[in-house]
Amino acid sequence: MKLTGAQIVCEALVREGVDVVFGYPGGAVIKLYDTLIDYPIHHVLVRHEQAAAHAADGYARATGKVGVCIATSGPGATNLVTGIATAYMDSSPIVAITGQVPTNLLGRDAFQEVDITGITMPITKHSYLVTDVRELPHIMKEAFYIARSGRPGPVLIDIPKDVQAAETEFDYPDEIELPGYEPPLEGDPQLIQRMADMINAAERPLILAGHGVILSEAEEELLALAERGNFPVATTLLGISAIPETHRLALGMVGMHGWKHANQAIQRCDLLIVLGARFSDRVTGKISTFAPDAKIIHVDIDPAEIGKNVEPDLAVVGDVKRVLRALIPLVQPRLCVEWITDLLRSKQQYQDPQAFQPKNGRLTSPMVIREIWRATGGQAIMVSDVGQNQMWEAQYYFHDRRRGLITSGGLGTMGFAVPAAMGVQAAYPDATVWATVGDGGFQMTIQELATIVQEKYPIKIAILNNGYLGMVRQWQQFFFERRYAFTPISSPDYLKLAEAYGIPAKRVSDPADLRSSVEEAMRIPGPVVLEFLVEREDNVYPMVPAGASISEMIERHMVEEGA
Amino acid sequence: MKTTKTIIAWMEDKPGVLARVASMIRRRNYNVVSLAVAPTETPAISRMTAVLECDASQEKLVGLQLRKLVNVTNVVTDLTPDKAIFRELALIKVNADASKRSEVIHLAEVFRGQVVDVGPQTLTIEATGTQDKIDSLIELLKPFGVREVARTGPVAMLRGTANGRGISGNGRKAEQ
Q1: Are A63 and A203 found together in one domain?
Q2: Of B12, B24, B60, which is closest to A179 when you measure between CB atoms?
Q3: Which of A39, A58, A217, A321 has minimal Cβ neighbours within 10 Å of its Cβ?
């Protein structure tokens, strides 16, 4: 059967199980859109292509399936770039399809021509420029396979207009031929035995769980390992929800804004078992003082992560889930009583709700987050933006749902939350989805409110409005003598704005109204905007200054008198 | 002088593959001293010999990053003169009028070089050998006036029957 390039793309999408795509039509994808409308694939019309990439990313992170976005050539394609880079840094499987000028105009600076495969080369796992329609079926197959297998990541397919229109015999391949691509899955049994020996010999073992645990769906195995040896589990930001955060053994997040007890656990442990994490500078702080008493075991599916930032004492390359399955029977059940008792005591102390109660009676962001946590029972899918709001969300919401936190970690992309939440809600129409944003990040992708309304997504948006680009302001306060250079930011009247979009909205400034406002938002079946006027110059504590040891935390009581 | 390391990589002969390799090396903050890429005995597979400014631990990481590129099928690092042979080709155009010609030709012969072009004022010498050997030849020719040098950068091959199965897809060093 002869099909056009556009039909081949759509047939492939259907065969790959894609039921929703996020995109924006344009001259170089008009043929593809003309075909797409006849297929059983829902298309979400975003208001800016960046949002299409973030939505595909959000969809992928929430489901583990490949998210798909579509944009036209030139500016459509370049608008995807931030979203693709965000997905790349956080190993999120997306396929980005872009239109391109016809092959006979390639390289001639034609209207809306841009070298998007060249531009995205350092931020994609792989990319294709399709110059012959006959290559399209196997390219589509490969793209989805590469995006989701091994260490996942974004793949870009750039398809010139004439290739979309050209016809060829369609035969979707069953097999993939990629001689250079063989993701390692099984860990070396000898190394796994050594890993078990090290764990069994350790007195103060600690697990640090990263995004890889979630990507390989190893949550059950992680829990089984932790409970078998009574091992405490700390997580990276993207590792949050790898273990239910209210679990007895869960210590919460480590790093620059990690909990004090979690960072202390890293500094005190004698064995650090790092699962699917990449020793980001935000996690390690000053590397030479990181986990000084510990032997380090690093399990990762990406061989290039081994020794990139921290040289481990033992490295096991493989899929976390498979490695853990092989490991668990070799680990001796035990209690590690002394080590864990001590840690759990300090965890209780530092996560004490009194620690963030205002002394002045004013509303604070941690109070808002903790109230959303209470109202949703820790079961919402939280999508956070970037900055102070992100860190408060990570600290004060205890994520008990699997894949319960979607956030831009590696790239730290402001404006991520609202469009990513659309992708999450597209995947799970009935799930409770909250986007927590600052007043800065929200204004970066605020246009997507129209998409939310058009798609009837019941997303609850909590704006933590402090009138500042708060994280930068916090750095200015600590390290630049309070010179608040261009961080004060004004906002539109969010109530009027929401009304213009047809979204119910409420402004909250009194802590006494907090609970009723959140509960009311939960009762409204559609989208809601809640604007919280929070303490303007509040800081995220604790904080490890960039480049300092994670033992050197700035705490609230050191900065604020009487706090 | 910064240390350099030589890496061999095999890659699918597809458009853009070299750009990917160069892009990755640049992004990871390595400096390329030379790159030599050409077809191999296997159809559709190209072979690259790259000389990079880096130390041994960086070499290992760049090898792993290279291996991660979807179109790169094999990478061999940790090449030393006892394990591998290195050869580079250079064309050296030297000032040599009739009075100096025989002297230059003699020097070239000492280095097993060949004269491949003779002009009224110049000689062009083709020389192959290790980088050091080419360097020395150029150094010795300098007093005559070296007008132009074109070097390929070294290519490398493992000695004996070792076939260069280097970093496998799962990142382990396979048998060499």
Answers
A1: no
A2: B12
A3: A217
